Amino acid sequence: MTAEQNPVPSPTPSPTSAALPSAAATAAAGSGEPELLTGSGAIIRTLELLGVTDVFGLPGGAVIPLYDELMTQDAIRHILVRHEQGAGHAAEGYASASNRVGVAIATSGPGATNLVTAIADAYMDSVPILCITGQVFSTLMGTDAFQEADIVGITMPITKHSFLVKRPEDVPGAIASAYLIASTGRPGPVLVDITKDAQQKTAPFIWPPKIDLPGYRPITKAHGKQVQAAAQLLADAKKPVLYVGGGVIRARASAELLAFAELTGTPVVTTLMARGAFPDSHDLHLGMPGMHGTVPAVLALQEADLIIALGARFDDRVTGKVSEFAPNATIVHVDVDPAEISKIRTADVPIVGDAKDVLADLAVSFSAVLKTTTPDFTEWWTYLDGLRKEYPLGYSEPADGLLAPQYVIKRIGELTGPEGIYAAGVGQHQMWAAQYIKYERPNSWLNSGGAGTMGYSVPAAMGAKVAEPDRVVWSIDGDGCFQMTNQELATCTINNIPIKVAIINNSSLGMVRQWQTLFYDGRHSFTDLNTGHGSAMVPDFVKLAEAYGALGIRVTSADQVDDAIKLALATNDRPVVIDFVVSRDAMVWPMVPQGVSNSYVQYAKDHAPTWGEE
């Protein structure tokens, strides 16, 4: 492609204070001298003016001034978590369920480092969160003072940006800039570290603050020639696929995606991060691609002659062996982050822009192309429909007579419906929840996709319920994941956050065990957790739930499943925990082994295939 064919898109102007919420600027405007506020007061006032209504946090010595002032106001609800990691994941769940910025607060040193996992998780999955941490006195920095840690340095590789604030007058600008960076362009986490003396001292509160972010110019409007080229390629293609990633949800572009897909008649696949971006019930939808994707979705990408990637990043779990991924496909790559374009698979037509705007432009361009070109995807759809008929998603009943986890999760989705929110942990239960619950709307599926963080589910569900109190929110968790962050049930009980928790209890670290079965001759090294059938059942999840003030239920047979789910749905005065005791031998199918071509996708309904190597 020549330089003329691939022009550099025009960047948007650098964000300024004009980009802050107009209502906030109006609220702050007034006559007379600026109000004198402490740095802590400025933090709270700035958050309030930015429209923040809920924060998750845990106090400590370096944020006592902030917490002292938090209790003097009622505009912002503070939810006291039991672990800082819980605050971070709750902020993620809040953001992912509502498209708002989630906020987490922690103290210096170990409080701040406990946020790191959630920050890394948000960075991988492009979740807009604002993390505010206290720091030791500026005069003590660099002396290895008590609970000192260079959290700005620690988080630099896993944030969009990190700020260190040492003066109270710099607080509004830093918080407002962080909020802007987190929520614009490709969303992500931003950290603001504020010294204790900056929180204690006073300064005039000036709003809106001047925001100076040299070099930060997110591109949202794509170049027209690139869009036209993509539209023509689609009209000329015989085997096209829309490869939809989580960026479509972050861009709030689901309506535009639906309109474009219906206009063009192009097959759609939605990645793990994009479940719900396109309705599962739609005839154009082939399902989820990737390591545990549906056979039609996996093979559609593999055999396509044109892939239009929308807010997706060609990660290894989707591509399999990259050098053998979609060997005959021309690639159109649409992403708001130019760093993702051609990072893994070279794009023939790179389009840098916001998915919402690009899809609308593509629809216009494709309609224009239809005046001279008549697309024909008939043979392609005949082949894909054949795959759908031959390889439907299914599972076998466990030979040991125990509950099938797929059945449990399927019934949770069917009895709750598409208006619910489902937050999964990481592992087999995560894949089953992605496969067997039908997602009809965006922001209904929350999970840790890129980082694969065990412990994500319970606090993320908690955050989602705070953001969307009128929706049913399920944490679909594993017995391993649940034991990492279940202390947040205390937070839920005390703060009247009635989430539902379904523990898919196979008494093991299930996904690792599956790999050990398939690739390590069944040597189950240190993956038995002794929580389920035929074990010591330590802990007893029902007793644990009751200790936390939740309703605890145990289900061991299929005839108990519906009644337990219905009881959970009817219980809204406290959290509910259901211990579903399932078979440890159940596996996630289909599966593409790591490091091989997606052409080797295995559909195993009644037996496991044999592979020679991992």
Automatic annotation (TrEMBL):
Catalytic activity field: 2 pyruvate + H(+) = (2S)-2-acetolactate + CO2
Cofactor note (record): Binds 1 thiamine pyrophosphate per subunit.
Alphabetical list of PROSITE patterns matching this protein: TPP_ENZYMES (PS00187)
Molecular-function GO terms, alphabetical: acetolactate synthase activity; flavin adenine dinucleotide binding; magnesium ion binding; thiamine pyrophosphate binding
Major enzyme class: transferase
Pfam family, one: TPP_enzyme_C
Cellular component aspect of the GO annotation: acetolactate synthase complex
Biological processes annotated in GO: isoleucine biosynthetic process; L-valine biosynthetic process
EC number: 2.2.1.6
Record has Flavoprotein as a keyword: yes
Name of the molecule in the record: Acetolactate synthase
Lineage per the UniProt record: Bacteria, Bacillati, Actinomycetota, Actinomycetes, Micrococcales
